[in-house]
Amino acid sequence: MSDHQCPDCAVQMEPTTVTAEGVGDLYVETERDGGILDRLGVGHHTALAAFLCPECGMTRLYADLPE
């Protein structure tokens, strides 16, 4: 999951950490009744990975979806 290109700068984005004060790891709620995430087999919480563009500072979050 580390091969992410910035859509604006076309450079390799670097892994980074995004935190919120008083909050642990970031995740998305993925419990869906019959929705696309449910059909993909994604659990109730899915971890997020953050990537930062060293050129423009754009930060993107990616859900760690099963392949």
TrEMBL record:
This is Small CPxCG-related zinc finger protein. It comes from Haloglomus irregulare.
